[in-house]
Design goal:
This protein is mainly beta. The protein has one helix at 192-203, and strands at 2-12, 22-25, 34-40, 43-49, 55-62, 70-77, 84-90, 95-99, 105-109, 116-121, 128-133, 138-142, 147-152, 162-167, 173-178, 183-187, 211-213, 219-221, 226-228, 233-235, 243-249, 252-257, 261-267, 281-288, 300-301, 307-311, 316-321, 331-334, 341-346, 352-357, 361-370. It has one domain (2-188, 223-370): Methylamine Dehydrogenase, Chain H (7 Propeller). WD repeats lie at residues 109-151, 155-189, 341-371.
C-alpha cells in the first residue's frame, strides 16, 4: 500500500497581498481537528484543519504596530494553566504571547536588538522557549514571568544573524544556524541554575521575573541572564552560504542552506570540534532542493522526525523519508501559482501538510492511502 498527499484546499489571507512567512501546527489536538497558525505582515491567522478536509479560519490577530512583520510562530501550554498560547515574532524583535482561544496578547518579551527569525519550544517544559535573532544571538526565556534566562552569543557565537533554533528531544541541547554559514550546538546545562531560579520566581509571583521578597519584605535578586559564549560544537565549513534552517533528528542534524541542498549529518561534539581547523562531522545524506537560493525558506518535519518537506521559489514541495537516506524525494507537490514556499508544517499525526506561501495563500494536502 502506498501513501501520498493530495491537494485539499487553498486559502488566501486578507483582501490584499500578505506574504506568508511562517506556519506552525498546535501540538494539542481538539475534538474538531488540528489548529494551526500562519503569519505574515502584522497578522497571525489561527485556522482549524478538520478531518473532513475543510479548513476554517478561527480568528486573526493584528498587531498594533502597523510596521510589524511576523516571520515565525509557535505554540505552547504552561503546566499550571489550561490556555493554549501562540507565540509570534518578527521585524520588531518583540515576541508576542497570544492567548490562542481569545486572541489577545498576554505578554510581550522584549530584549532582542533586531528582528526575531525563529521561536522554539522546550519539549519538556512548555514555559521555556528559545528565540533566534538578527542581533547575532539566541536567547532562552521563561514565559511564566517573561524573564530572559540565558543569552547564547559572544566569543564563539554567531558572527551574523541567527536564523533558526531547535531543541533536541530531551531539551538538553539547542542547535542554531545563521547568516555566517555557521551551525552550532549549545548545552543548557550551563544555565541550569538560572532555569531553576526563573521557575522559583514564577512560583513566588516575582514582580520582575528575577527577584523575590525575603522575610523582611526586601527584594532579593535571584539571578541574572546567563551569558553562554562557548558552544559544544561549531562549524562554518558544512555549508557555503546562509544556513536558514536546522533541526535535530535524534543525535543527528538536518540543515538547509541557500546553496540548493539539505544535509543530514552527524556532529562530533567534543573539545577538538571547537577548534576552527578541526570541525569534525560526517555527512550521511545530501538532499538536493533546486531553486532554493533565496534565504528564509524553511523546511518542516513530522513529529517523529522521519519525514521532511521543503519548498522552493518555483512552488515545488519535495518530501523525503529521512530513514531511507535517498537523495530523490519520495513525493513532489506543486503550488498552482508557482509562488515561493516560505515554510511547510505537518500536523501532529502527520496526515496533513500545510505550506505557507509568498502569494498570501496557504495550501493544504491530506495523506491518502492507495493500493
Amino acid at each position: 500500500m502506498n501513501s501520498h498527499f493530495v491537494p485539499t484546499v487553498s486559502v488566501k489571507i486578507g483582501s490584499s497581498l500578505v506574504p506568508l512567512r511562517g506556519v506552525s501546527f498546535c501540538p494539542f489536538p481538539t475534538q474538531e481537528g488540528f489548529l494551526f497558525a500562519v503569519c505574515g505582515s502584522r497578522y497571525v491567522c489561527v485556522c482549524l484543519a478538520k478531518p473532513s478536509g475543510e479548513t476554517v479560519i478561527v480568528h486573526t490577530y493584528s498587531d498594533e504596530d502597523e510596521k510589524e512583520a511576523f516571520y515565525c510562530c509557535s505554540w505552547t501550554m504552561i503546566k499550571d494553566k489550561n490556555d493554549v498560547l501562540l507565540l509570534a515574532a518578527g521585524e520588531k524583535g518583540i515576541i508576542r504571547i497570544i492567548n490562542a482561544s481569545q486572541g489577545f496578547v498576554e505578554r510581550s518579551l522584549v530584549g532582542h536588538g533586531q528582528m526575531v527569525n525563529c521561536i522554539a519550544i522546550h519539549p519538556r517544559e512548555g514555559s521555556l522557549i528559545a528565540s533566534a535573532s538578527d542581533d547575532e544571538s539566541a536567547r532562552l526565556w521563561n514565559i511564566r514571568t517573561g524573564s530572559m534566562v540565558a543569552i547564547f552569543a559572544g566569543h564563539q557565537g554567531h558572527r551574523g544573524g541567527v536564523l533558526y533554533v531547535d531543541f533536541d528531544v530531551l531539551g538538553e541541547r539547542m542547535v542554531t544556524c545563521g547568516k555566517d554559514k555557521g551551525v552550532k550546538i549549545w548545552e543548557l546545562k550551563h544555565c541550569e541554575y538560572e532555569i531553576e531560579a526563573s521557575h522559583r520566581c514564577a512560583d513566588m509571583q516575582s514582580p520582575d521575573g528575577y527577584s523575590i521578597e525575603d522575610d523582611s519584605l526586601k527584594r532579593k535578586r535571584l539571578f541574572r541572564p546567563r551569558f553562554v559564549q562557548f558552544p559544544l560544537f561549531s562549524t562554518f565549513l558544512l555549508h557555503d552560504n546562509f544556513v536558514d534552517c536546522a533541526m535535530f533528528v535524534g543525535q543527528l542534524i538536518v540543515s538547509k542552506s541557500t546553496s540548493n541542498r539539505i544535509l543530514l549529518w552527524q556532529p562530533q561534539a567534543d573539545d577538538a570540534a571547537l577548534l576552527p581547523w578541526n570541525n569534525q562531522y560526517t555527512v550521511l545524506a545530501d538532499f538536493p532542493l533546486p531553486h532554493s537560493e533565496e534565504w528564509f525558506i524553511r523546511f518542516g518535519m513530522n513529529w517523529d522526525r522521519t519525514l521532511l518537506a521543503a519548498g522552493n521559489t518555483q512552488g515545488t514541495i519535495c518530501i523525503w523519508n529521512i530513514d531511507e537516506l535517498r537523495s530523490k524525494p519520495m513525493e513532489e507537490l506543486n503550488i498552482p501559482t508557482k509562488q515561493a514556499v516560505a515554510q511547510c508544517a505537518f500536523s501532529p499525526d502527520g496526515h496533513i501538510l500545510i505550506a505557507a506561501c509568498l502569494d498570501g495563500k496557504f495550501y493544504r494536502w491530506d495523506l491518502q492511502n492507495a493500493e
